[in-house]
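Hey,
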Amino acid sequence: MIFDGGRLSAAQMQALILNPQEHDEARVLPLDSWRALMPHRDFERLNAIDGARRTGVAAYFDTRDWDTE
């Protein structure tokens, strides 16, 4: 499940408090900039999420066989 919480202002981004046991930073980048920073399948999932958010149409992304590559 993905929750779209809307857009954060610069002040809201700066006010984020991260749990250091879970995250070491928060970034906001254009979608295509994430491609080089993520494993291929993770980026494909992110791309599907973006498409669903932009169109309002639910997306299904199967990860069942990810450990077979």
